[in-house]
Amino acid sequence: MYSIVVPIYNEAGSVSELHRRIVSVCTALGAPFEVIFVDDGSTDDTAKRLQTLRPLTTITFRKNFGQTAAIDAGIKQASGDVVITLDGDLQNPPEEIPKLLRYMTEHNLDVVSGWRKYRHDSLMKRFTSRGAHRLRSLFLNDGIHDSGCTLKVYRRHCFQDVDLHGESHRFIPAILKLNGFSVGELVVEHQARTSGHSNYSSNRIIKGFVDMIGLWFWRNYAHRPLHLFGGVGVTLVGAGASLLAVLAVARLVWEYPLSTSIWPLVAVLSILAGLQLFITGLIAEVLTKTYYSEGRKPYTIKSVVNHD
User: Fold this and answer.
1) Cα–chain-centroid distance for residue 54?
2) What is the pTM of this model?
């Protein structure tokens, strides 16, 4: 069964056509399907248009919580073995879905992400996306050119222990790859927006960058935070102690005046900051062990095979 999840925000001009094309594509696939539209607090006539569409499951938010929350709610509602996500503005053609599904099957992948190689967006949006790709490659190295493309197909089991928050919908491939799932990418068509307006803003860029840093930390240090905080702490303590030793020698040998120098203060502050970071690492280590002692595991199991 296929579950098609679409986050919607003020897309009254496109939802009817989008729904018609999704139903047409899924009917041609010859398998059971469900269509889930998540109305993310729309203020136009989107809600009225959704009431006229069949078949459709509609999730309506009380207010605008953002695309990540809408995708998360839709995925949690989905009951299909394969979950398909795409935008509600018709820039992701539903007709590309069968191509992604074939690629997933042929390469035995858990995730296939669309790549809008030839985009029909503003110059500023393309420039920002390219910069985001470079930063994502530096911090996450997920191997994906266009993680921001909503058109993706997933096997349902990928989201068994995954909760999306912030602006993390852009990093779903990286999150799932971190959990051991196989991720692929395929070039898809991208069409120009014909109605409504883009909700892209500088605020979303900042939130996305912060989430990317958080994911980088989680990938590298979630299971061993003491390595980061403790390592930096020991380095600062060592640097501060070394500086005090140098100052002591300078005072005894060359009569260097310490009372009018800022360096003794720098050394002491370095030692204190190092000790504080080291203690923070110890506390984080305890919290991490407590977290996983409650039945959670820092790994996922793909299969268990018994050889009789």
Assistant:
1) 31
2) 0.70
In this predicted model, what pLDDT tens digit does every residue of 58-91 receive, in sequence order? 999 988 888 988 998 999 999 999 999 999 989 8
Integer CA distances (angstroms), 100 to 15, 21, 109, 147, 188, in order = 22, 16, 11, 15, 9
Q: What is the secondary structure of the chain as a DSSP string?
A: -EEEEEEESS-TTTHHHHHHHHHHHHHHHTS-EEEEEEE-S--SSHHHHHTT-SS-EEEE-SS---HHHHHHHHHHH--SSEEEE--SSSSS-GGGHHHHHHHHHHHT-SEEEEE-SS--S-HHHHHHHHHHHHHHHHHT----S-TT---EEEEGGGGTT----TTGGGGHHHHHHHTT--EEEEE-------SS-----HHHHHHHHHHHHHHHHHHHHTT-HHHHHHHHHHHHHHHHHHHHHHHHHHHHHH----TT-SHHHHHHHHHHHHHHHHHHHHHHHHHHHHHHHTT--SS---------
What is the Cα–Cα distance from 140 to 205, expressed in whole angstroms? Answer: 16
Tell me how crowded residue 201 is: count the other CB atoms within 10 A of its CB: 9
